[in-house]
Design goal:
alpha/beta; L-arginine/glycine Amidinotransferase, Chain A; four-stranded mixed beta sheet; 10 helices; globular
Length: 346
């Protein structure tokens, strides 16, 4: 493949953000009314700096969403409705990943989505990138390797806009559970990242956090906040189920040199105290923040560490306000803000 591509960092200017209005009651049983109001807050903050591209299952859902958003004070002139049915709302994972080609033209990547190799219903979600490319009039590219479409979710990767990518072995290299691309090795994935994202360096972390049903998405544990700095979710409680994985990931990042030869800077971001629902540990993490044009939206959990995490991120993003979004109900769906959003470069 002769073309070369560039994967912009999340903090680069967006044209908009993709978001799917909540409708799958199995994600938030008994909580749908509350979740809709959380979405209202998300949209209100996003719309201050960019277009919100809201996926809805039809006119009735669009009208319900419009009415609620009006009550929250969201700028409806900056909300664009797309009447495309979806299975679920996790647009980070099935939404179009935007890159730029050698001529700086936008291209939307249509990676195969199969519901994290875990759930049976994903066919509607898998259609969204191609529908977006057609609606926006841009080129759509379906990544392939070894003669077959490549399965990859947006939450499995995080880039710095300077040819370096973060991911985890648990998500992409595990051969026993939730296998995305059977037979793929580390080198196979790195070839895909290089070919379609312009990545020259992949930093492989180990495991994700307990309770993450995606089986190790990196956006719950480690995120770039600038070209040479990451935040890493950590706990100092040796009795916590996440302690060993956090320590291993910390060790893997020690001494990492980036493509330009500079040292990777690592800032520790605390984990909140464990949250449970019906005996299940929930994947509550401040690392699941979303970098919008006009704000950084950070999940909060009514926890003593909320203020600490917001302070750390405020220092790291002096160019935009850092805003906490109540996510105790949201995380019942096993994901929060970053999982729900996908930045749009066109």
């Amino acid at each position: 493949m002769k073309d070369s591509y560039y994967f912009p960092a999340e903090w680069s200017p967006h044209v908009g953000t993709w978001l799917a209005w909540p409708h799958n009651r199995s994600d938030w049983p008994g909580k749908m009314a509350v979740i809709a109001w959380v979405y209202g807050e998300i949209v209100r903050h996003l719309a201050r700096g960019e277009e919100v591209r809201l996926l809805v299952n039809g006119p009735t859902e669009a009208e319900r969403a419009r009415a609620l958003l009006a009550k929250t004070g969201a700028d409806l002139s900056r909300v664009r409705f797309f009447h495309w049915p979806t299975n679920r709302g996790w647009t980070r994972d099935y939404g179009p990943i935007g890159v730029r080609d050698a001529k700086d033209a936008p291209v939307l990547l249509d990676f195969q989505f199969n519901a994290w190799a875990r759930y049976p219903h994903w066919q509607l979600d898998n259609q969204i990138p191609a529908r977006a490319a057609e609606a926006l009039g841009v080129r759509c590219l379906r990544p392939q390797h070894q003669g077959r479409p490549t399965v990859l979710e947006g939450g499995a990767i995080d880039g710095n806009g300077a040819s370096t990518l973060l991911t985890t072995e648990e998500c992409l290299l595990d051969t026993q559970r939730q296998v995305r691309n059977s037979g793929f090795t580390r080198k196979d994935y790195e070839r895909v990242f290089e070919t379609y994202l312009g990545i020259r360096q992949t930093i492989w972390l180990g495991r994700g956090i307990v309770g993450d049903d995606t089986h190790g998405h990196v956006d719950d544990i480690c995120r770039f906040v600038s070209a040479d700095t990451v935040v890493l979710a950590v706990t100092e409680d040796s009795a916590d189920a996440n302690y060993a994985a956090c320590q291993e990931n910390r060790e893997r990042l020690e001494g990492v040199q980036l493509v330009d030869g500079s040292a990777l800077q690592v800032v520790h971001l605390p984990l909140p105290a464990p949250l449970y629902f019906q005996g299940q540990r929930l994947p509550a993490s401040y690392a699941n923040f979303y970098i919008a044009n006009a704000a950084v939206l950070v999940p909060t959990f009514n926890d003593a560490q909320d203020r600490v995490a917001l302070g750390i991120l405020s220092d790291l993003f002096p160019d935009r306000p850092v805003i906490g979004i109540h996510a105790v109900d949201l995380v019942l769906g096993l994901g929060t803000l970053h999982c729900l959003t996908q930045q749009a470069i066109v």
